[in-house]
Every structure is written in C-alpha cells, then in structure tokens.
Amino acid sequence: MASSTTGEKKILTLKGGDNEEFILEESLVLQSELLKNMVKEERVSSIPLPSIKSKTLVKIIEYLKKHAELTPSNKEEFKNFEKEFVNVVLEELLDITVAVNYLKINGLLEFCCQAVADRIKDKSVEAVRKIFRIESDFTPEEESEFRKETPEAFEGDLDDTTN
Amino acid sequence: MPSKRIKRNQPHKRQESIDDEDIISDLPRNVIDCILGKMPLRDAIRTSVLSKKWRLNYLTIPQLVFDDQFCKELIDFAKKKKTRKFFNYQFNEIVTNSLMLHPGQIERFKVCIPKFSILGYPNVNKWMLYLSTKNIKKLTLEYKKNSVRHKLPPHFFSCLDLTYLKLRNFDFAPPPELKGFLYLEKLVFFGVHLANNCFESFLSSCPVLQKLHLRGCSGVCHFNIIGSKLKILCIKADDKFESISLENAPNLTKVTVALEKAVIGCLIWLSLGIVWLKSNYFV
To answer: Whole-model pTM?
Structure first.
C-alpha cells in the first residue's frame, strides 16, 4: 500500500482514539521516546493510541514533520510555527500537552508547558479558577489565612480577565 | 515523503468534556510540576490557594529560580511596606523555606543574591547543604554586587552531582580533598577569582566537561586545558590572562577569546583538533 520508491524508508501506522489511521515515515516518530522504544524493541508497524484524539494526533504529527525539517537556516520560521502551534483553545492545548507527555516528546512537552504557564502568569487567583474551571473547596477564612502566609505573591496588579 | 491520512467512517464523536469540568487539576503530576516550573515563583505560589488539590503543588517544582525578577517584585513589595530589613528577611525566608519544604528532587536551583544589609545575611551554606542532599544537577549562584567577591560556602563542595554550574562574584578555591565534579558538563564563571594553581587541576578533575565560559575572571595567567571532551571554550576580558594551552582536545569545535587589551606574548596553543576561531582573537 504505502511502499516508498527508494525501498529504504520504513512506514508506520498510528491509530488515533477514534480509529483514524495516520501513515507516516518511521523516522518521524523516533522523536517520541515511547514510540521509539516500541518500534525498536517490538518491531511493530502499527501502533494503536486509543487515548489520543485524532485531532490531537494530527497536530502532533504536524509538529514532528516541522521539527524534522529544522535546520539552522529556518530557525526563525520554526519559532513562528511553534508560536502558532500553541495558539489554540485551552482544552486543545491541554490535550496536546497530555498526549505529548504520554508519547514522551520531551522538547515539545517543555514548550507546551511553557504555553500553559503563560496563561496562568500574572493572572489573579479568581481568573485562573475561571480559565481552568477550578472550583475552590476552601472556606473564605481558610483562603484568606493562606494568602497571609505569602502576602507578596498576591500584591500588585494582577490580571482579572480570562483572556 | 508526505504522510497520508486515511479517513475512516468516524464513529459518533465522544462528547467534549462538560462545560464546567475542571480541566487542569487532574493532569499527570509531572506535567503540573513542569507547568509550575515554567512561571515565576510568585505566580506558582499563588496557585496554592486555588483549591485543596493545589495547596502543596508549588512546593514540588523541580526547578527553584530566584532570579532578578523575583528580587524586583519582592523589593517593590518591601518598598510599599517601607522597610528594607523586611526585604532581606523575606528573601532569605522564602529561599530557605522553599528548600526545606521541598519533598522531592530539585533539578535546578538558581539564586541571584541582591545587596544585603549585614543583619540579614543569606543562609547560602544552609541552602547548599539542602541541595547536596537533593542531588542537585544545575546550580546558579550569583551575587549581584560586582565589587565584592564572596567565599564559597563549604557545603557547596558537597554538591557532587552537578552537570551545570554558574558562579558570579565568588572566590573559587576548591579544597584539596575535592575529587572533582565527575558529571559536570558546563561551567560558567563570571567575575570569579581563581585561587592560584588550583584551576588546572580542578578542570582535569571534571572529566566530562564540554563547555567552559570564563568572563572577567582573575587569578590565573596561564593555564593548560587537558581534556578530550571539551567542545566549546569562551574566554572574555580576563585580567592578566596571558596564555592558554590546549592539549589533546579533539572535540573542540569553537573557541572564542576576547581580551580587554591584547597582551604581548599571549599565546594560544592548539595542539589537536579542528578549531573554529570566531572573533576577537588576539595573538
């Protein structure tokens, strides 16, 4: 089906959570420690990844391709790509982050975590709760007590918006 | 070759998570640690009041960074309270507590120590003691004030698992019994005074050192670098610095030497290896 003309490149199928299949060169997935071990040790040609939504997998494969093409001369372009890559709705970003953590693609994990961190930075506690839909289970007295432990962390202009 | 995407008949799509469900608190622990480690400490500390699940999360961040921004925010806060002593106390207290309360591994520790009043001297030796028990890997210790050099606290030399070390404004005099930093890959010294005759032997006791940066250091006029692993050597504006001799350095790919004034007799001996001299190279 997907034999390459050179006959050298190995082909691998990844199966996303909704059974969608993605056929790609084996060399691309070696960036993932998890898949690398599977490919090297078990010599599989098809890997089911039921916990990863296809939509997420599409994004990750897109990243792997771009990263594989990275050279010193297109560094800037890659940086812009990375910026756009994490410019998605928060739920999607978190899905990607969790999937990347599972696949053990370390560089991308760091980058995704930075993008999540940037959405928390400079925000007020109330805004962070709203953004991530965290429900406080403290009493108001408890919370104000805890705030007093590290007053400097709550000083200054904090952003109350959820943008 | 482009990858092909085969569309299958998609089964009914899983319902997206219900609108009011918490989307972050149950992420894997290492992901949460990583996220918290990517923001200034002040922001990470604020997450401790989000909910009970978050109460202690910030304590286990594997990177503890007390940098210039951290100091600036703390100073702004102290100014509002109109007390400099309060700042000194808080700085010491926050750094010390973050270490003492840390239950897990600390991968990286960075502290930029601002000017301190004598009353509130920071507990650097205590920090080093804690870090040595945590198998610290990456360490940055900086004193901001350039005119003063500080002694390295004795416990510093117990942090033997270091892979990265950066020191600014210190006197560096390793004790004779030091066996060396066996895992050290990158060493950066800014404004460090190197005690006489010890630097060479110290370097030779770092067998996997790949990158060496010295800037504004003093105490050494000539030194030999004998190391087969060294890849990058960068030396800038070092007082009285006269010669470097490199022996057996086949992995060296980049050498930058920039002296404030070209010293007559400055000699760079490159015995082996391909060397790319970048710029500011005086002979």
So the answer is: 0.78
Residue B27: CB atoms within 10 Å? 20
Look up tokens 């990058």; give the residue: B232
∠ CA(B177), CA(B178), CA(B184), 5° rounding? 170
ipTM over 0.85: yes
CA B27 vs. chain centroid, Å, equals: 28
A–B interface: beta-carbon pairs under 8 A: 139
Two structure tokens written together for A34: 């998890």
> CB A91 to CB B23 under 8 A?
yes
Q: Do A125 and B20 touch (CB under 8 A)?
A: no
Question: Which domains, and CATH codes, for chain A?
Answer: 11-120 (3.30.710.10), 125-154 (no CATH)
B257 three-class SS: strand
Cα(B31)–Cα(A114) distance, rounded to whole angstroms?
A: 11
DSSP H helices in chain B? 29-37, 41-46, 68-81, 84-100, 124-133, 199-204
Dist. CA A30–CA A105, nearest whole Å = 9
Smallest Cα distance from B85 to chain A, Å: 15
Tell me how crowded residue B107 is: count the other CB atoms within 10 A of its CB: 17
Asked whether B101 and B131 are in contact (CB, 8 A), the reply is no
Instruction: Find the length of chain B.
Output: 283
In this structure, the number of other CB atoms found within 10 A of the CB of residue A106 comes to 13
What are the residues facing B193 on neighbouring strands? Answer: B171, B218
Q: According to DSSP H, which parts of chain A are helical?
A: 26-29, 33-42, 54-68, 75-85, 90-103, 106-118, 125-132, 140-149
- Relative to beta strand B63-66, strand B138-143 is unpaired
What is the per-residue pLDDT across A102-153, written as a single tens digit (0 to 9) for each? 999 999 999 999 999 999 999 999 999 999 999 999 999 999 999 998 888 8
Residues contacting residue B265 through CB under 8 Å, at least 6 positions apart? B242, B243
Contacts of A2 in chain B (CB under 8 A): 4
